[in-house]
Amino acid sequence: RWDQTVETASKMLLEKHCNPHVRLKDESV
To answer: Can you give the pTM of this predicted structure?
Structure first.
């Protein structure tokens, strides 16, 4: 479902925003 994809993507963005370690890990890869 489209709205489910948007929900998952927005949740990932929120997790990256709230958890800098996740963002740093993604950038190092």
So the answer is: 0.41
CA–CA distance, 21 with 25 (Å, rounded to integer): 6
Task: Give the chain's domain count.
Answer: 1
Domain housing 5 = 1-29
- Residue 18: what pLDDT? 64
The DSSP code sequence of 1-29 is -HHHHHHHHHHHHHHHHH-HHHHHHHHH-
Residue type, 15: E
The number of CA neighbours under 13 Å toward the Cβ of 16 is 11
